[in-house]
Amino acid sequence: MPAPRIAKIDQSKLRENVYYALRDAFTRGEFAPGDIVSLRILSDQLGTSMTPVREAVRRLVAEGALIDTPSRTLMVPPFDSNRMQDLKKARLALESLVLEQAMDRISADKIDEMEAILAAEPRGGDTTPDLQQNYDFHFALYRQSGSEVLLPLVEALWLQYGAYLNLIIHHQDAGKIDQHKHHNEIIHALRQGDRAAAQRALAADIERSFQVIASDGGQRVSR
Amino acid sequence: MPAPRIAKIDQSKLRENVYYALRDAFTRGEFAPGDIVSLRILSDQLGTSMTPVREAVRRLVAEGALIDTPSRTLMVPPFDSNRMQDLKKARLALESLVLEQAMDRISADKIDEMEAILAAEPRGGDTTPDLQQNYDFHFALYRQSGSEVLLPLVEALWLQYGAYLNLIIHHQDAGKIDQHKHHNEIIHALRQGDRAAAQRALAADIERSFQVIASDGGQRVSR
DNA sequence: TCGCCGTTATCTGTGATATTTGATCGTAGG
DNA sequence: CCTACGATCAAATATCACAGATAACGGCGA
Fold this sequence. Notes:
2 copies of one chain form a homodimer. By secondary structure, chain A is mainly alpha-helical. Chain A is built from 9 helices and 3 strands. Chain A folds into 2 domains: 14-75, Winged helix-like DNA-binding domain superfamily/Winged helix DNA-binding domain (Arc Repressor Mutant, subunit A); 81-214, Four Helix Bundle (Hemerythrin (Met), subunit A), CATH 1.20.120.530. Helix content of chain A is 62%, strand content 3%. In chain A, strands 1-3-2 form a 3-stranded antiparallel β-sheet. In chain A, helix 5 packs antiparallel against helix 6. The longest helix of chain A has 25 residues, at 81-105. Chains A and B meet through helix 3, helix 4 and helix 7 of A and helix 3, helix 4 and helix 7 of B. The first copy, chain A, binds a DNA duplex through residues 14-15, 38-40, 48-52, 54-55, 71-74. Chains A, B: This is GntR family transcriptional regulator.
């Protein structure tokens, strides 16, 4: 089994922290589709006992980021082209809806904040896309929808999508990805209040996210 | 604390069973918004130890059916009008999408099966709406979408909606609810392949679901 | 006598650990 | 080469120990 890099966590509010540590590891693409994860190894790496890890893992299973195999071992869902298409459809539909609600309420200040996120220094070097920035940008927007129901659903989709990030990061064309173009279009459309343009730009951005791995599936790249 | 009726469960595959037992209790409207639930009491009722209950409960929290209060006690989310509106919007959007995909693939056989569900004997007596039938009908349809991504999201919405079922069941107008009309319209539209009509009927059915409790909120009715 | 406040006892979830169960993998024997 | 047995490992449950919160109870003051 590969050993994803997960930093040890501090000992207060263990359960929450374990969950977010694992969640972060997912959104950073530390886990590759098909990876087997073990509660013991995770708890050793995190410096805690199995109990908090198990609860966090159970939550991740509920959210679809991990699956229970029939033999009870935990696995990152293997690459599945159909499922990925499904995921893309779901993202397009849900995030379109959330964007709609966000545009009803967003203020000029918040648009400025979103632009500030784009202006920040890239954290991952120039060769890999800045996943954290991408995440921050989208959710700064989505949070403006004010929907406590839809937002967790979108987060669940991103978490499932997270396993595919590993494939993207290690893909040979990773450096070519240009997320800035669509992001700037979204900002511009928000300023204009142009709903159709914002929807188009967001849809294009989501399509882009899947484009790199759409053709060649299942190239498992562990650390 | 009220004592929701939860049957003891058999001892194999405990974790799954505990989860589904609690889930069922939710969809039967056994829990009222604002109820406090205790791990120990639940595990006593189910005849197991706390551990499996804890994991099941943790999953329900992740799905929004229960919430953690700041003092760490578990609570059924209290009635919240805004949240309910939010939930309705989400259900309308997501179930519309799922219906769309289901209509691409559904066969005449499956439509017959759905009709058979409607023809079955009502289980709850004539005064209360048959919640199980309603659930079975909708998900027989949604399963035809074949979407492993969207279906769990819809289930999560129904679970959050479940807490409000308690309010509906004990509502004075509960007997007046006529779910058959919209269901038959859906069946008819499916047979005709009339997408617009199916969408209209489904939307009307969802609206109906919320109508009873839309006006008077928070009438807490425990057992 | 009534009301307020502090103390205490109980009940809560949380984290850790031990025990049991089940599955997998390697090896030895046919 | 295939099969079957056993050792090993991981997950599932139960039990234990701890810390925090809640609520009830009793004493004190008005």
